[in-house]
Design a protein that fits this description.
Protein name: Selenate ABC transporter substrate-binding protein
Radius of gyration: 19 Å
Number of helices: 12
Organism: Halomonas pelophila
Family: Belongs to the phosphate/phosphite/phosphonate binding protein family.
Pfam families: Phosphonate-bd
Keywords: Signal
Length: about 280
């Protein structure tokens, strides 16, 4: 197994015609790069053993870059969010969502707030969030932007820039947490699993920032494979990849996502995400 330290290096290798029999995958950069490299290099080792081909993890610097790498056949498999998976499958006809985490069938986002706001946890989005500053994660993050914005619009019948004093995009969930904890932003929309893992690891000062609301559930992360992998790697390769993902049971590998395990998925499961993205104009 090998992983490529930067997307620039990866693109250089592709331009030079890297070996066609190497199976490459990427993942949306929803946390800081060092954590991603650690968790996905171990996944590459696992897949290489199961698939009996060379496997490389290719880091990318943005959600958009993960979709572009998939579209351009620089990677053949990707760990996408709900929206990025929809985007990728639209661009590469025949591509299939193979698996999702057990938590991804009913995923959720948290709205977090700096303690100085005086906001407390509630079952319904409180009126008091009006005129506060809010940062989303990546512009195309399902849990850090798409679904939180959808529920905010449902509740207040207003776009975020009409509802809040300032609206920003941090780039990833870890950064959102850090910025709200620092008081740079009063509110933030964040993936619940990243928040829960950060709290469990002691990486969040809960005296400074807390969860004030959680969204209703929605489908999110997924492993998506290109539709042409059987032609490249042999008949039945898609099924072998699916089986390897569904049978991943090493607690250390699963904890790195973090997920309890993986369950079957298909493209139809993400129709609700596609509908919301169309509504918000994020698929044009």
């Amino acid at each position: 197994m090998r992983w490529l330290a930067t997307s620039a290096v990866a693109l250089c290798l592709f331009a030079q015609g890297a070996a066609a029999d190497t199976f490459r995958f990427t993942a949306i950069p929803d946390e800081n790069q060092s954590r991603l490299v650690e968790r996905f290099s171990a996944v590459a080792d696992y897949l290489e053993t199961r698939l009996d081909v060379e496997v490389e993890y290719v880091p990318v610097k943005s959600y958009g870059a993960s979709v572009s790498a998939f579209r351009n056949d620089q990677v053949q498999l990707a760990w996408f969010g709900g929206l990025s998976g929809v985007q990728a499958r639209r661009l590469v006809p025949g591509s299939v969502a193979l698996a999702q985490g057990t938590e991804d069938a009913e995923f959720k986002s948290y709205l977090i707030a700096h303690r100085s706001t005086g906001l407390e946890r509630a079952e319904t989005l409180p009126e008091a969030i009006r005129d506060k500053s809010l940062t989303f994660g990546s512009r195309t993050s399902t849990s850090g932007r798409l679904m939180p914005e959808h529920f905010l619009r449902q509740r207040f019948d207003a776009a975020p820039d009409e509802l809040f004093s300032r609206v920003g995009f941090s780039g990833d969930h870890s950064r959102t947490i850090a910025l709200v904890e620092a008081g740079t932003w009063e509110l933030g929309a964040v993936n619940f699993s990243v928040w829960d893992a950060a709290v469990a690891d002691g990486r969040v000062d809960t005296d400074k920032v807390e969860v004030i609301w959680e969204t209703p559930p929605y489908p999110d992360y997924n492993w998506t494979v290109r539709g042409d992998v059987d032609a490249r790697f042999g008949e039945g390769f898609t099924d072998r990849v699916r089986a390897a993902l569904l049978e991943m049971d090493d607690p250390e590998l699963l904890a790195s996502f973090p997920r309890e395990g993986f369950i079957p998925a298909d493209n139809a499961l993400y129709a609700p995400i596609e509908d919301v993205a169309e509504e918000l104009g994020l698929l044009r």
